[in-house]
Specification:
- It is a single chain.
- The protein is of the alpha+beta class.
- It has 3 domains: 4-130, Histone acetyl transferase 1 (HAT1), N-terminal domain (Histone Acetyltransferase, domain 1, Alpha-Beta Complex), CATH 3.90.360; 134-273, Aminopeptidase, CATH 3.40.630; 275-416, Arc Repressor Mutant, subunit A, CATH 1.10.10.390.
- The chain has helices spanning 4-15, 17-20, 26-29, 54-57, 94-97, 104-111, 120-127, 167-174, 176-181, 248-261, 276-290, 298-301, 307-317, 321-335, 341-372, 375-384, 387-415, and strands at residues 23-25, 30-35, 62-64, 66-67, 70-76, 82-87, 90-91, 138-147, 151-160, 195-206, 209-225, 229-239, 270-271.
- The strands form 4 sheets. It has a 6-stranded mixed β-sheet with strand order 8-9-10-11-12-13.
- Helix 10 crosses helix 11 and helix 11 (276-290) packs across helix 17.
- The chain is globular.
- The chain binds coenzyme A.
């Protein structure tokens, strides 16, 4: 619901074409950058933009009241010291246009921690401090990535917690990125000592010195399981956009898995409200980890999803039953000759059996409803659960699942 004032403002804004020019798409207006060298500040090729800004600017992702709005949030590549600037070519005024511009600066200030600068020269001098920036916490894993342009680059994954000096403030700067790249992001209370933080850094050279740039991170909450176990739950994972699609997400998730596997008190590893991208990444990593286990050997796969698989995945890799089931389906697809009609049908039935679970539940609900609904209500429910539609939906889910599985199999083959 809008107040009277807001309604009037909205009406003026939609009615007047002149005022419509003062509307800016906030995903375009916000420019983000990770700065290593002073010349990066004016180099547009290193700028990237949010995927989402609805949590800050509302569902329309629009800021009203400015022409040529530019919101710059530039970060020093390592410790993420921040330069924050708002620029525009013109702004509506209450006296002339009878409307008020959105408080863009105030909205951004609500999500970025204090301590940023608004002065580019100050920001450039802060870059000199980057030589003193060292990754927080303990080193878990080092790996290299080969790229055509940059040659061989080295990355490190560290485990940190809030007791690491300077980490709390660094994390407050880092988590601002969540708002722009995770649809339903929320900030966490890092002071709760059950949070573990896993950070990825790239080593790079600047004037003969080795410096560290922030690549991405993951937060994990250690839930307690009665009587003496924990269940680490992945909460947020973000690989910063300039580094996406280079394998860092897979490296990070695998390193985190291996870390928790080494702790006897860990029961299994879960995730909070996982996104589709996260599930794809997890499937890939878990298949990579499970493919060498005896219970998942090629000759066992066609016998079905077994208790041995569940136990081995749980005991050796802290993988829960639901995730192990997907691993089994992927490995079985890889081992199945899908040009053989009988084998292909067997496989399809096997996956559909799992996918059919929720539909069967629907049918049970329908049966219950029949007993207590009035006829007209029943008709509306029946149409929602029409068998033909269910059949089509099931086929579509199956096709989608198999397509994702095939991509994972291709990725595994390309890494082999
Ligand atoms: C989801 C996310 C964590 C994945 O991280 P990532 O580092 O991009 O992941 P990877 O590079 O390991 O894999 C991503 C894709 O890149 C591909 N890829 C990996 N290395 C590659 C390479 N060297 N060359 C080409 N493609 C490559 C993978 O095959 C994979 O493709 P697929 O999705 O079709 O399977 C990251 O994209 C992200 O942070 N997204 C925004 C936030 C988010 O969604 N977080 C998850 C939920 S909280």
């Amino acid at each position: 619901l809008h107040s009277q004032g807001e309604m009037e403002q909205l009406l003026t804004y939609f009615v007047s074409p002149k005022l419509a020019e003062y509307k800016c798409d906030t995903n375009e207006a916000i420019s983000l950058k990770l700065v290593r060298f002073p010349e990066d500040v004016d180099d547009d090729s290193t700028t990237f933009h949010p995927e989402y800004s609805h949590q800050v600017f509302g569902d329309d992702e629009v800021a009203f009241g400015y022409k040529g709005l530019q919101i710059q949030l530039f970060y020093a590549a390592g410790n993420l010291s921040t330069l924050f600037k708002v620029k525009y070519t013109s702004k509506v005024t209450e006296t002339f246009d009878c409307v008020e511009a959105d408080d863009v600066e105030g909205k951004i200030r609500e999500i970025i921690p204090a301590g940023f600068t608004c002065n580019t020269d100050d920001f450039i001098s802060l870059l000199e401090k980057e030589a003193n920036f060292k990754p927080f916490g303990t080193l878990l894993h080092t790996y290299t990535v080969h790229s055509e342009e940059a040659g061989e680059l080295t990355y490190q994954i560290h485990k940190a917690d809030v007791t690491c000096p300077g980490f709390r403030e660094y994390h407050e700067r880092l988590q601002t990125f969540l708002m722009w790249f995770i649809e339903t992001a929320s900030f966490i209370d890092a002071d709760d000592d059950r949070w573990d933080f896993f950070l990825v850094f790239e080593k790079y050279n600047k004037d003969g010195e080795t410096l560290y740039a922030t690549v991405g991170y993951m937060t994990v909450y250690n839930y307690y399981v009665y009587p003496d176990k924990t269940r680490p739950r992945v909460s947020q994972m973000l690989i910063l956009p300039p580094f996406q699609g280079e394998g860092h997400g897979a490296q990070l998730l695998e390193a985190v898995h291996r870390f928790y596997c080494s702790l006897p008190k860990v029961q299994d590893i879960t995730a909070e409200d996982p996104s589709e991208n996260y599930v794809k990444l997890r499937d890939y990593v878990l298949v990579k980890l499970c493919q060498g286990l005896p219970s998942f050997a090629a000759d066992k796969l066609h016998l079905g999803f077994s208790a041995d698989m569940i136990k081995e995945a749980q005991d050796k890799l802290k993988i829960n039953k639901k995730h192990a089931r997907r691993v089994y389906e992927i490995l079985r697809l890889r081992a199945t000759d899908m040009s053989d009609e009988d084998k292909a049908r067997e496989y399809r039935l096997e996956v559909k059996k799992r996918l059919f679970g929720p539909y069967r539940k629907n049918q049970r609900e329908l049966a219950k409803m029949r007993k207590c609904l009035r006829p007209e209500e029943l008709v509306s429910h029946m149409s929602q659960m029409d068998t033909q539609t269910q059949h089509e939906e099931l086929e579509k889910s199956y096709q989608d699942v198999v397509e994702d599985y095939r991509r994972i199999i291709e990725r595994l083959a390309s890494q082999a």
